[in-house]
Design goal:
Layout: H1 2-6, H2 9-17, H3 25-31, H4 39-49, H5 66-86, H6 92-106, H7 109-117, H8 124-144, H9 161-168
Helix pairs in contact: 4-5, 6-7, 6-8
Amino acid sequence: MREQMLRDPVGRRILKERPEISFTTAEWNALGKLPEGSFGRAHFDQMRRNGISWATRPPVRFVDNEEDAYMLLRYRQCHDFYHVILDLDISVVEELAIKVFEWRQTGLPVGLIASAFGPLRLPSNERARFLSDYLPWALQCGSHAKPIISVYWEEMWDRSIDDVRKEMGVWLLPQRNSVTGAENSTARVEI
């Protein structure tokens, strides 16, 4: 992941500046006031719909190297942006698809492990959907997309979500399944 970031000018800038994802209450609420279709608004809406706070990522532990610790923190903090950019919610099936995408993007083994063993937790119909639709899409999309660990997400708030996806080389899952969408979300909070 470090080498991937070093090969990219924005990745190098991120490693140098070491931004962290955090918001004041006013900054967070401002995202909710951005226009529909903007990346920032899509992020705000998805986090709210799923009852997730940007502040819930645990600190990185057991990593002695400061730069490695920062890269893992950045990886964790950017995970929620992947939900937005891929238009996936927080169901088990969709979390697994994101882990596969992340594995193809970063090479970190957590995604490979999740995709190998995670489907065992699924009911047979969802497992079949994961294997037939989500897995091939996540592998292909993750393999062909721009390395999104090197995206300065904090500079994307006002941009059109569709333009950001195009720039990243990301496309949405062609066939939406019944496990996707607000009516099937595992959201903890209703809007």
